[in-house]
Amino acid sequence: MRIQINPDEDMFLLDHVVDGSPVLPTVMQLDLVARALRAAGQERAAGLLLRDVAVGPAVRFDRPGPHELDLLCTPESSRRPAPPAWRCELRSPGHDAPHLVAVAEHTAGPPLWVPAPGSWADCLPCGPDLVYPPFFHGPAFQVVSAFGRADSGLRAALAPALPPLSWGCGPTVLRPRLLELLLQCCGLQELAETGRMMVPASLEAVHWHLASVAADDGIRALAVTRPRTGRENSGRVFDGQVVTPAGEVLVTVTGYRTADLGQAARLAYAARLSRGLSSLPEPSPRSAADLTIPKGA
Hints:
This protein is an alpha+beta fold. A hairpin with a 2-residue loop joins strand 2 and strand 3. Helix content is 16%, strand content 33%. The strands form three sheets. Strands 1-5-6-7-4-12-15-14-13-9-8 form an eleven-stranded antiparallel β-sheet. A two-stranded antiparallel sheet has the order 2-3. Strands 10-11 form a two-stranded antiparallel ribbon.
């Protein structure tokens, strides 16, 4: 599938600028995978599971005008029964390294875990002023309205009245900003604890439940994340879910791993984040020695 993306038409790119150049967000790359499956007639009346997701070099728009991408989807043997899985690779013509690799499956499987919906948006002491800046996102991707601690992780509420998000050629297949909310929530914890800006590197799986595909842009949602040790002690990864106030699960993520953006550590922002997060009382006592302090601060 040959895809043409143009910042003059796909205006959301102007709200995702890194080092002066528009960059195609990972969540929108995943939407291209869903679009390709729909074009190939593989859409099902169920959720969509993307597993073994690997994020490669960024799709950058350093020069004016459109950028062409190739999305190749090939059948892959799956451990699950039919319908089959599809290995999807997003590439720039003439380049060896893919921008994104994912295995796509249509599934209606149950959520892996569900956070308690009670007081789902209470006690979120931190506002978007602690997110934008330092995060580089423009209005279309300023998805965090408030956030705070949740056990060992964070939780963040989806901002209301966000600008419309669509491709120049039409609407998105998925609801990318639901996943963006969860990824930014993980990025906030990384920034607060390390002082580093992080970008997506890989996901063991992201499950778009059927309710997320049917959700409208005005839906209220909360992302809840928690860190754990990756497979074979390979460093920290995040699990998380996006839920509605009623506890309906929209998106489930397992094994989200980040990579350093390569910019200088932002310790001043990290210190502000830590102070903001420490203002929320926790259910159990916490000693001063347990408070998160950025490395090098």
